[in-house]
Amino acid sequence: MPTDLYISTDIEADGPIPGPYSMLSFGMAVAATFDGTTFNRLEGDTFYRELQPISPDFIPEALAVSGLDRAALARTGAAPALAMAENVAWLAEMADKHQARPVFVGYPLGFDWMFTYWYQVRFTGGSPFGHSAHLDLKTLFAQKAHRPIRGVGKRSMPRHLLGDSPHTHHALDDAVEQAQLFCNVFEWDGI
């Protein structure tokens, strides 16, 4: 049985979908491995990039969430093709280091997965996660807590699952925070 390598991922974007709008930054944090029997928490390996916008369009309210400056990113952000190539190489390095296959972890999955997968495919030709190696942390919690998915939010989670890291809307900070939450929920027996 293959071993999973859980990669907690968070992105910041200036709109609701990739293509017409831009992913402005993304962060990844190695969270854990699981071989079907043994779950091992991991810390320390991270990846972060700020990107040049790919479109002139943006939604001011979406941009305000991250606090990133589009004009500055146009000058100093990484070209998306370069950033995604570096990211794919980092994921391969992590997979080799841990002798495991990467699994994307998001909360909620849809938004972060959509942008990351689209950028990886668009700028590198494919994704190390394939089209389906992803886990929605919100769904995992809902299943363990025996709650409907629409009734789940971080405010409804037991405090001991949330960890100590703040949610800052900085993609790397939030990926690290989410990695802690993922490990706590994965190991939690539920209610």
From TrEMBL:
Gene Ontology MF, one: nucleic acid binding
Extract the Gene3D superfamilies matched here.
Answer: Ribonuclease H-like superfamily/Ribonuclease H
Which SUPFAM superfamilies does the protein's record reference? Answer: Ribonuclease H-like
Provide the protein name: Exonuclease
**Source species of the chain:** Winogradskya consettensis
